[in-house]
Prior knowledge:
The protein is of the alpha+beta class. Helices cover 47% and strands 10% of the residues. The chain has a five-stranded mixed β-sheet. Helix 4 (122-137) packs antiparallel against helix 5. The chain is globular, with a radius of gyration of 20 Å.
Amino acid sequence: MTEHTQKDFSNLYTPIAIVLAGVIIGAFAMVGISKMGGASGGEQAAKVDIADVNIENDPYIGEKDAPVVLAYWSDYQCPYCKAVEMGHPQIPTDPALPVLIKEYVDTGKLKIVFKDYAFLSEDSTTAAIWGRAVWDLYPTKYFTWREAMYTAQDEEHGGFGDEASIFALTKTITGIDANAVKTRVGTNAEAYLALIEADKAEGTSFGIQGTPGFITGTTLIPGAVSPEEFKAVIEAQL
């Protein structure tokens, strides 16, 4: 994410260098958005097994004892995570989560466990802490809140994502008392941070190096892949 003749073209070198530098910086910026976002599902770095993933303390949707489990490491600031969850205008990947929810979660076949991999900015950690508090207090509203967070997502650094903006968004979710969530964040932040860091460390141990990252069955899916690729791995387990 990067002849000369006898005539003197030195006056052209500086603008050309500036253009090339801009291209290179832009490429690295896209990588920096999410290390794994554009990776292929075939780039499996290590042997994995969903049975080895700790899913006891994380938010989830689906039946508790669904036959297939998908562990999903994400960062609320990650545009590739947004692409997976609801689509992103600048990322040409069909959103997979709506398909998986309709065809597998709603039919009792799949449980999706949401694990934190907060690494992009301070806002990433703030959002993850708030997510834990929402799950603790209002588990049936967690996914609605989560989708609202991704809808509101803007640039990776700055803009939406600090505590004030998350509090304002939380106030708009019917059935959630934003003040109660803020209080829970204040009293449990340290415990939540420990869980968030444990999630990231666990993901790293399985070969996940950024977001999004998924494990289901014995397959590691690094990056925002198509719904069809998710479905193939899920169907193989049913």
